[in-house]
Write a structure and sequence with these properties.
Layout lengths: L3 E6 L4 E7 L4 E5 L4 H10 L3 E6 L5 H4 L2 H6 L3 E5 L3 H5 L5 H4 L10 E3 L4 E4 L2 E7 L8 E5 L3 E5 L2 E2 L2 E2 L9 H12 L7 E4 L5 E2 H7 L4
Parallel strand pairs: 3-4, 4-5, 5-6, 10-13
Antiparallel strand pairs: 1-2, 2-3, 7-8, 8-9, 9-10, 11-12, 13-14
Length: 203
């Protein structure tokens, strides 16, 4: 594992994670605030090659298209593509900006690929949104978006949310991974798979 940085921004304090290959190339998981991310990249001499979206809510990808303009490819699950151009991204409902985009790469459960020297595996975890995914990186860490938080889970009272499906995703897909991955969520602080398997009151 190389360097990993966290930026928190936007109206709902979402997390963006930046991972490097030890050189100038990097990728990000979600896009909370383009200005903050862009400033960070410039300050550290980094070039963003990819934006891995955990889901299509505005606070995680409302400005991802700006990183795309800068040369990054956007990855998203096919089930969340309709949210990008529709009401499901919640931007209009929350009075927040959302710039529609055309994704470059459509991912699905079980996909594996490499970006900037990091090996990525996709776990489809619907419930918060139909196309919510978690990204396992280098078989060490897991980016959970709004699927799993420390001692909590993502909201399911938004359009397209499904509480039973989200809990099933966590119990049957994350808690059965058999490894205590460090979990970097879309909001708040990190946790781990084993800790929340034993202690999370919502699952």
């Amino acid at each position: 594992m190389k360097d990993i940085y966290r930026i928190t921004g936007g109206a709902y304090s979402a997390n963006t994670y930046i991972l490097t290959d030890g050189g100038e190339d990097c990728f990000v998981v979600d896009c909370c605030d383009y200005a903050l991310i862009s400033d960070f990249l410039k300050t550290h001499g980094l070039k963003c090659k990819a934006v891995l979206l955990t889901h299509a809510h505005f606070d995680h990808c409302g400005e991802a298209e700006l990183l795309q303009r800068d040369g990054a490819e956007i990855y998203i699950h096919e089930a969340d593509v309709p949210l990008v151009k529709g009401e499901g991204n919640l931007g209009a409902a929350m009075g927040q900006p959302f710039i529609p985009f055309e994704p470059d790469i459509i991912v699905k459960d079980g996909d594996r690929f490499e970006i900037c020297g990091h090996k990525i595996a996709i776990v489809h975890t619907p419930g918060h949104t139909p196309g919510g995914v978690c990204y396992i990186v280098d078989a060490e860490i897991l980016f959970s978006g709004d699927t799993l938080f420390k001692l909590c889970i993502g909201r399911t009272d938004f359009p397209c949310g499904n509480g039973a499906e989200l809990r099933r995703s966590i119990k049957e897909k994350l808690f059965t991974l058999g490894k205590d991955y460090k979990v970097y969520p879309g909001h708040d602080m990190p946790t781990s798979i084993f800790f929340d398997k034993e202690n999370n009151p919502y699952v």
